[in-house]
Amino acid sequence: MNQRKILVTAALPYANGPIHLGHLVEYIQTDIWVRFQKLRGHNCIFMWADDTHGTAIMIRARKEGRSEEEVIAEANAEHQRDFAGFQIQYDNYGSTHSDENKQLCGEVWQSIRDAGLVKEKDVDQLFDIEQGTFLADRFVRGTCPECNAEDQPGDNCSKCGTTYSPAELINPVSTLSGSTPEIRTAKHLFIELEQLHEFLEDWTQTGNHLQPEVANYLRGHFLGDPQSAEGAKPLRDWDISRPAPYFGFEIPDCPGNYWYVWFDAPIGYIASTQQWCERNGDTLDNWWKNDAAEIHHFIGKDITYFHTLFWPGMLKSAGYSLPTKVHIHGFLTVNGEKMSKSVGTAFKANTYLDHLPPAALRYYYASKLGSRLDDIDLNFDEFISKVNSDLVGKVVNLASRSAKFVKDTGLSTSYPDDGGLFESAASAGDEIATAYENCDYNKAMRLILELADKANPFVENAEPWNLRKDPAKAQELQDVCTIALNLFRQLVIYLSPVLPDLAEKTGELLNDPLLRWDQSQTPLTGSSVAKFKHMMKRIEEKDVRAMEEASKIEAEQESALTDNNSEQFVDSEQPMIDEPMTDECTIEDFMKVDLRVARIVNAEHVEGARKLLKLTLSLGGDHRKQVFAGIKAAYEPDQLVGRLVVMVANLKPRQMKFGLSEGMVCASGPGGEEVFLLTPDEGSKPGQRVH
RNA sequence: GGGGCUGUAGCUCAGUUGGUUAGAGCAGGGGACUCAUAAUCCCUUUGUCGCGGGUUCGAGUCCUGCCAGCCCUACCA
User: Fold this and answer.
1) Where residue A91 falls among pLDDT bands split at 50, 70, 90?
2) Å from the A372 CA to the B48 C1'
3) Gap from A220 CA to B51 C1', in Å?
């Protein structure tokens, strides 16, 4: 077999947050593919890194009062800890905030400049004056200019679906500071992608670099179809720079401006390779400028655009190899629903590992992943039954039901007649390998489990538990177990990209490490057999529930911390229970009550009164009202003077112990310290009636 | 609004270039076994292949319209 040179990447985890089970779909998918290639004997390296630049990191560092470097160093350590926990093996883990990356970005940039692809344009963008920074769309909210829905995101309206620029929002508010941003004009650099149109049309539509639906998507949405009546659509210019302040690399020939994070992030793939090369005495050109080396990217469908248009364009301009293939996967849903941080279904890697084994998730994902972009669903009932039934019940069961019978004798010295079972399973290897190669892991798992379904009946019919009762049948017993253990070993080799842990334990059991795919083609004989130990635990429902519970609690704690402007309004029902709705009234009834805006012009304690404050309210001009209000426990007189309130102005005056009260001040709350005065919005004037 | 993908048994999905009575696993029902982590083995029930048209000797498969779901719609990670 020809040894291939294969460089693999997964999307770079963003250094602003923990890894959750959604991310792991991709990382496990990638790891399985890399392990598979290595098992097949290919020269495969997995180059990975943290994505560290951009506004989000900058803002977070500011909020936490520390440097960006500290934030990303912490994230890096956490990420690598989680990956180790899930047995994800990479050959280098770098950072986009590295010297190598800065250097490479400069080189790529220069070649794009030289190719005449860069131009300057002025861009109007909202600027947060308090924070001193330009605002990306997602940091702005405001009223939709189309339908007037309030509190909408900066790029499109969730009510009417209109898309707009944040500068068009009515009453825009910065979510960073709560202040009102202003529009400022700044110079931005753009890459004229359209100049590469023909190249991108060709690269995306031919050569099998992309899944067919992705190629269609790009043509339908961005490139247009040169053969169709509409013809090709021009590609828009790509805004590649951000003015200071920005956490990233400053553009050498454009001081005060930084590369947009999506420029330097994919170059991080190359920078990570650079680090690996330096450590291993290899050269970058050997991998990135070599037709004999394959380059495979694994990404989620959300970042398709960047990896299939910008990235090939950048590589092409800079003279690097183009991706052999971009493997794109769908998202993870949990019990059929979109993952949600607030509901607690965005399970963190760490939380999962506190309660459940990594192998279970690796297998479950493998059994669901196909080569297409469909979302996959994590359903815990299915998860439990699949892992237990397939892995423990069928696969591991083969070893646990036969190994102990040959603990003292070891495997037979020659492989007995098994009716062709081993041979047919060996020849299924090619089809399984093809499925792995094509990322059809669900097909691979199905094929492997079919083999397990043939192996168990063999043991059933051979009845080793009866053979061992008759000393005369010792050889037959050894032969049966030799067959069972070889079929088991074969399955484990096929499964080893998914279940490296099981492969290792099987190697120990049979005294023969499993390192190469072709070990599945030859039976193992004469080997000693170690004492059988549990290789995999059944998943128990209580552990899953405990994990779900833990995640829910984490989510609640987090939302308690950051819940200032969240979209969910979950209010207690208690007030309505305490004071149920009164009987219906007519508008005439309501109009009898003359509510007025009033200004508190004086407030003082009343000697001898436990609850009351004496307020003097102005309704404008000379109109003054004296009111005794039961708000002493909640307000200090000083705080009240000058503020506007709502009062019942035509209430029949009432003689109280301390004087005449000529109205009421409106407030809510049960009383005592919990009294809350109503405040009219800014702009209202004393004397105005409330309708 | 535009676009992409999906819709096959209760659940998760296979169904190759259109070709006999549409398949698997799980779940359900019945039985067997007891070596094995209440694991295993045998037998077994279930389908207007989203809906309506069309092409064809023949359509789950091709074309078309509709319905439903998911996703994308670029300066968002």
Assistant:
1) very high
2) 29
3) 27
